[in-house]
Amino acid sequence: MKKTFALLLALVMVLALAACGQSAAPAPSAAPAAEAAPAAEAAPAEEAAPAEEAAPAEEAAAPALKAGFIFLHDETSTYDLNFMNAAKEACAKLGLEEGTGYIVKTNIPEGQECYDAAAELVDEGCNFIFADSFGHESYMIQAAKEFPEVQFCHATGTQAHTAGLDNYHNGFASIYEGRFLGGVAAGLKLNEMIEAGTITEDQAKVGYVGAFPYAEVKSGYTSFFLGVRYVCPSATMDVTFTNSWYDPTLEKEGAIKLINNGCVLISEHADSMGAPTECEANNIPFVFYNGSAAVDCPNTFIVASRIDWAPYMEYAMTCTMNGEAIPADWTGTIATGSVKLTEINEQAAAAGTAEKLAEVQAMLEDGSLKVFDTATWTVDGQTLTEYQADVDDMGDFVPETNVIADGFFHESEFRSAPYFDIDIDGITNLDA
Amino acid sequence: MNKNDRAPLFHVAKRGALPWYQAWAIRGAALILALILCGIITSLVTKLNPLSVYAAIWKGSFGTSRKFWVLLQNIAMLLCVSLAVTPAFRMRCWNLGAEGQALIGALASAACMILLANKLPNWAVIVCMTVSSVVAGAIWAGIPAFFKAKWNTNETLFTLMMNYVATQLVAYYCVVWESPKGSATIGIINSKTEIGWFPVLGGQKYLLNILIVAVVCVAMFVYLRYSKHGYEIAVVGESERTARYVGIKVERVIIRTMLLSGAVCGLAGLLLVGGTNHTLTPTIVDGRGFTAVMVSWLAKFNPVWMIFTSFLLVFLGRGAGEITTNFGLNHSFGDILTGIILFFIIGSEFFINYQIKLTRKGRKEE
Fold first, then answer.
1. A116: chain B residues, CB-CB within 8 Å
2. A199 has pLDDT over 80
3. Which residue of chain B is at minimal alpha-carbon distance from A31?
4. Measured by CB atoms within 10 angstroms of the end CB, which terminus of chain A is less buried, N or C?
5. Can you tell me the ipTM of this complex?
6. 3-state secondary structure chain A
């Protein structure tokens, strides 16, 4: 008896729930419609892709584009959040709506799952696919080989210019310009501290928490350091690595190590809030990456540089829409709006930072100032006039391209991903 | 004695064996209750229609033929690791080191692919990968087994710690073989030559893996149910003393069973590297070594039931990913739903084994 009663009760609840779901919310009825839409759209998109002549005719109607985005983590990672915001912005500009116009897949590991995710996006009718993490590259190439009619764009990768595929592309930005500006802001802060007598000129040492001893990170911290020295010539720098792109604990420990080692200002290239919160607790000013930390660290956050991926995404998606070729490598600059600084936090920044940054930025934009000007840095006391970098990443580690000419290191010109991996004088690697 | 009549409202009593249909009715009721609770939470928290959320979960596994293949592949990999831990579990030997054993098998396969490429013909590389990964997994399980058999060390802690050693070893070799320099990622191994890649059967990338695991599953079922070894494992699991009394060499059974356990884990590592990923990362096993514990337990250590329990876990996981993508929810929400469903399913086992008796007022209990 009891059992039948329980069963009856369960049945009633299920029915009640179903009834609620149908009557109360008008939204659900929209959901099935939205689900049906991709299937309907997929067909014309597939038809249009092979026959490019047909594309312009349809252009007047709905854009022949459906974008898929593959992200390593979700919005809890500052790195991925930066990409997610850019994707939203770029898609909004092109009139794409989530679900029908673009699809986002988060928490996709750097393995076969990335290929599966890309293939599933193609199944859902996507003809443009973007992945945000370095380790996704091999799997994006695998998918690009299998789906030649779909455009694949990969941020921070190195292999597009040697992969020989028409539909696989790398994008990056000259973030070294942004880091240089961040360095200038840091140098001004050091100067202020020297003038105030809190430190001497010799104590002007900055610290840097890096992820991996990899060209992208080395290029980043070297440009930051050159920015610091541009305004504060006596400065030196200590670097420590976490060997992880995202590890709040290790990043915090890295910051502690640097502070104990006498660093009076810190910057970083890793993706968590580990280092900033430690700096705030110790009242150590810092320059951040990926986004502002002014809310969480109001007393110590000076400024942050970040890559704005929206211009690249918008450009590549527009190309896909119009059936134009996307270059194998695309490097956004401070002039294209791909490299940005956040608002300066006046509470922590030195007086006059905004004016100085505007002045330096103008010089970077018109080319009168080069970040990696060989006159400003040395290796073992020598100025370099030639340097062979491993631009063609064939897995052989054989440097094949001379990247120093006209008195400066040509970063991100021979391919979009950075290849500056020189250890210059004045920077000490604490982990070496 | 004045408050003697305040007996508890109910008490729990062990049940006799239930007929199968009643047991399944309880499991079914638990699943329905779990779905109802998930529905209520979904509509309260996200204001979405729970039915469309359930539809999305379903679509995550069965939406397209590709999703279905991915589902099968994930089931196969989880099942493979679950099959590996099962013989040890039946022996009441808690091998929690499946993660590390599979990882070390993956490391061995990747090492063969990298070091033997262009030195041996492709088939020979694959043979070397198979042998070395199975042996590596067996060694990784054999070390704690040897210590347990000789000195009765705690295998739970020992195997757990071996996981960390394996993870760090793999992290180290990721740096040794990294490409490009400094990135600590290996990328796809032999992407041009495809040396050491498993052949693709019938145009389906995952078919070979699935077939191999199916064979392992049947073999494991037969081994545990019908072989002398299987019987010895069961006896040792019931009581070591009885086993000794009837003349079973307990130490030998422990070591032999753990070696088997590790070898199948090594095979899982081989399938992950040679069959699908063609790379090596410290996270390549993706927690399957621990999920396998649940799969094996839920199926009561029965290899055939494990097909269903691994299906359930993979299905829920894929569904969680699908609702994240479809509704712009955080991945954690899918995990919450999965947690609720698993809680009810595991909880239902309690009601199958025990019954709750209401204490009737005014009546003396027997």
1. 66, 70
2. yes
3. B52
4. N
5. 0.84
6. CHHHHHHHHHHHHHHHHHHHHHHCCCHHHHHHHHHHHHHHHHHHHHHHCCCCCHHHHHHCCCCCCCEEEECCCCCCCHHHHHHHHHHHHHHHHCCCCECCCEEEECCCCCCHHHHHHHHHHHHCCCCEEEECCHHHHHHHHHHHHHCCCCEEEEECCCCHHHHCCCCEEEEEECHHHHHHHHHHHHHHHHHHHHHHCCCCHHHCEEEEEECCCCHHHHHHHHHHHHHHHHHCCCCEEEEEECCCCCCHHHHHHHHHHHHHCCCCEEEEECCCCHHHHHHHHHCCCEEEECCCCCCCCCCCEEEEEEECCHHHHHHHHHHHHHCCCCCCEEEECCCCCCEEECCCCCCCCCCCHHHHHHHHHHHHHHCCCCCCEHHHCCECCECCCCCEECCCCCCCCCCCEECEECCEECCCCCCCCCCCCCCCCCEEECCC
| Tens of pLDDT, residues B13-30 | 888 788 888 888 998 999
pLDDT of residue B351: 86
Inter-residue long-range contacts of B196-199, CB under 8 Å, 24+ positions, other chains counted: B196/B109, B196/B112, B196/B113, B196/B116, B196/B117, B196/B122, B196/B125, B196/B126, B196/B129, B196/B274, B196/B278, B197/B274, B197/B278, B198/B126, B198/B271, B198/B274, B198/B275
d(CA A360, nearest CA chain B) in Å: 31
Among B209, B277, B351, most A C-beta atoms within 10 A, so best to mutate, is B277
pLDDT in tens, A368-401: 999 999 999 999 999 999 999 988 876 667 888 9
Interface contact A21-B50, CB threshold 8 A: yes
Structure tokens at A93: 């500009």
On whether any CB of chain B is under 8 Å from the CB of A217, the answer is yes
- CA B222 – CA B173 distance, rounded (Å): 38
**Residues from chain A contacting residue B321 (CB–CB below 8 Å):** 105, 107
Domains of chain B are: 16-355 (1.10.3470)
Which residues in chain A have their CB less than 8 angstroms from residue B70's CB?
116, 120
Looking up tokens 């029965």 gives B302
Tell me how far apart the alpha carbons of residues B271 and B186 are, in angstroms, rounded to a whole number: 18
Residue-wise pLDDT tens digits, A144-178: 999 999 999 999 999 999 988 999 999 999 999 99
List of residues 6+ apart from A49 with CB closer than 8 A = A64, A127, A149, A150
8 Å CB contact between A67 and A317: yes
Phi, psi of A8 (to 5 degrees): -60, -45
Q: Where is pLDDT greater, at A244 or A352?
A: A352
A114 to chain B: which residues are within 8 Å by CB? Answer: none
- Which of A54-63, A219-228, A396-405, B73-82 shows the lowest mean pLDDT across its residues? A54-63
Q: Model confidence over B71-101: pLDDT tens digits?
A: 999 999 999 999 999 999 999 999 999 999 9
Chain A / chain B CB contacts < 8 angstroms: 117
- CA B224, CA A329: separation in Å to the nearest integer? 57
Q: Which of residues 87-106 of A touch B (CB under 8 A)?
A: 98-99, 103-106
Contact B187 A137 (CB under 8 A): yes
